[in-house]
Specification:
The complex is a heterodimer of chains A (247) and B (271).
Chain A: E1 4-15, H1 24-29, E2 41-52, E3 56-60, H2 67-75, E4 85-88, E5 92-96, H3 107-117, H4 122-136, H5 151-164, E6 169-173, H6 182-197, E7 201-205, H7 209-215, E8 218-223, E9 226-232, H8 233-246
Parallel strand pairs in A: 3-7, 3-8, 5-6, 6-7
Antiparallel strand pairs in A: 1-2, 1-4, 8-9
Chain B: H1 5-15, H2 20-37, H3 45-65, H4 76-98, H5 100-103, H6 105-108, H7 116-143, H8 155-179, H9 183-197, H10 204-210, H11 212-217, H12 219-232, H13 239-263
The chains are: A alpha/beta (247), B mainly alpha (271).
Chain lengths: 247, 271
């Protein structure tokens, strides 16, 4: 029997319309003794899902379908509605293209901050530090503030940090191998497969059907917060593309 | 000017048993401190220049223009300096803590981080500046022949007390701030009120004579009273008020942990 990495049961997420109130005036002007019309936004409804250890699982759906909300809930950064159950095993990290870098800090400080936040000790970070810098090819700029980096350097640093991260579950939100120039792209694709995809549990959210098709064994299609299908990737993608064409 | 603060800090951390959480808080505090002071040419000395200028202004106003409106307090400049640095540490912790979820959004939206660490590191980073100023007070005391007594040993407890109160309050206010943004205007008013009524300019005795309730209700009156005993050898240490303030600090800090545990996973969708 396969070990479970993520188990989701009856998961729903509703954003309250009150989230928009930000000042005392907002609260007073919208106050009413009568029951107000419910303007809450249902982002996810009755999602049931089991992702196994070592599996690379895809999530597809149109913009605003609830993919990012689902990732944030799995990450633990956002609470689901009452009655939802979510169980995760191991250290989770979300990788996105705009991920955790402070432009005012040097690459060194950013690597140490990110490393310590995902649970690495300074000793462990020191152990992988040189590899990250060398892989990103920024040996001469490791103490320069990231805001002075070119776009390519930033991408290489980000990518290099990500592939050296030690997490059991990666949530990849439109983040995939192949950034920078041709040489780095080739190098990064290999490293990405080897260090992130192989042997880890991955949940990939992407608009690229090719990425989902090539990487994921199974996949979930969400439409307007509702779970449409969870099945083998080919089957889900066929239904999804047919649906998109019919729209 | 750049001071080798990080080197000293790295050495200290090496002798402390390895703990990822402590390292994380330390690193966040260290980079925060670096960002504030190390990018300027004068570096850490801005931390000293700011309160020094304030002391100079208030000294001239109270001592010279208002003709000794300070009940004849000896070493009035040092009296002011010690009060101002404590209050600055407190108000800076509160103000910086208020927007912490916004300024550290890049961290909280990608990693399930214990959000309390953001506040602990924020306060610690402010305390670095406070300790620098505090050392300046000690040096001035030495050159102005203020005796340094055994009471100095109480200082870590007083600093811990300031840390507990300011961290706890900054957590509570930051959570209120994500729901009600105009709370910052109310905080500004309270900070101004506290600045003028907590005993930075006057002795705690005058506050006690004015209102006993306020003397006990505002922990900074007692904190400033005791810190002057420790630094300036003014009167006797008030253990009673210190115990009361430490209890208040523990209650505020525990309450902030409770509130944060309730709201922690609601923060991202509200900022």
């Amino acid at each position: 029997m396969k070990d479970v990495a993520i188990e989701i049961k009856h998961l729903s997420k509703t954003y309250s319309s009150k989230n928009r109130y930000k000042t005392v005036f907002d609260y007073i002007s919208n106050f009413s003794f009568k029951k107000t019309i419910n303007e809450n936004l249902v982002a996810l409804r009755e999602i049931n899902l089991t992702i196994y250890k070592g599996e690379t699982f895809g999530i597809i759906g149109r913009n605003g379908s609830g993919k990012s909300s689902l990732l944030n809930i799995i990450l633990g950064a956002m609470a689901p509605d009452k009655g939802s159950t979510i169980r995760t095993e191991g250290r989770i990290m979300k990788l996105t293209l705009g991920m955790g870098f402070d432009p005012e800090l040097s690459a060194r400080d950013n690597i140490y901050v990110n490393g310590s936040i995902i649970g690495l000790s300074f000793k462990e970070i020191a152990h992988i530090y040189d590899d990250i810098i060398i892989f990103a090819g920024i040996q001469d700029f490791q103490n320069t503030q990231v805001k002075y980096y070119s776009k390519g350097m930033k991408q290489r640093l980000l990518f290099s940090t990500a592939i050296h991260a030690k997490a059991d579950i990666f949530l990849l939100d439109e983040f995939f191998g192949g950034t920078g120039d041709l040489e780095f792209r080739r190098k990064s694709n290999t490293a990405f497969q080897k260090r992130i995809i192989e042997g880890k549990t991955n949940v990939i959210v992407s608009h690229s059907i090719d990425i989902i098709k090539n990487q994921c064994e199974r996949c979930l299609w969400i439409e307007k917060g509702m779970q449409k299908i969870v099945d083998k990737t080919d089957k889900v993608i066929n239904s999804y593309t047919e649906f998109i064409k019919s729209q | 000017m750049k001071v080798g603060f990080s080197n000293i800090a790295e050495r200290i951390i090496k002798i402390i048993p390895e703990s990822n959480r402590f390292e994380r808080i330390w690193k966040l505090a260290q980079i925060d401190f670096k960002k504030r002071y190390y990018n300027d040419k004068l570096g850490l000395f801005w931390a000293l220049i700011n309160p020094s200028i304030k002391v100079a202004i208030y000294y001239v106003v109270f001592k010279k223009i208002m003709n000794n409106a300070n009940n004849g307090i000896e070493n009035y400049a040092l009296f002011l300096f010690s009060g101002i640095i404590v209050w600055m540490a407190f108000s800076e912790t509160i103000k910086r803590g208020l927007r912490i979820f916004m300024s550290k959004r890049y961290l909280i939206e990608n990693i399930n981080l214990n959000k309390e660490d953001l506040f602990l590191s924020n306060s610690l980073s402010v305390q670095f500046g406070f300790l620098f100023n505090f050392t300046a007070v000690l040096i001035i005391s030495f050159f102005t022949n203020v005796p340094i007594t055994i009471n100095l040993l109480w200082l870590p407890i007083i600093i811990l007390n300031i840390y507990l109160i300011s961290t706890g309050l900054s957590v509570i206010l930051a959570i209120i701030y994500i729901y009600i943004r105009d709370v910052m205007h109310i905080i500004d008013i309270f900070l101004l009120l506290g600045f003028w009524t907590s005993g930075i300019f006057f002795s705690s005795e005058s506050i006690y004579n004015f209102s006993k309730i306020y003397y006990y209700a505002n922990p900074f009156v007692g904190i400033l009273e005791n810190i002057r005993v420790v630094l300036l050898n003014e009167g006797h240490l008030n253990i009673g008020i210190m115990s009361l303030n430490i209890t208040a600090g523990i209650i505020i800090f525990t309450l902030s942990k409770l509130i944060l545990s309730i709201y922690s996973d609601k923060i991202l969708e509200n900022i």
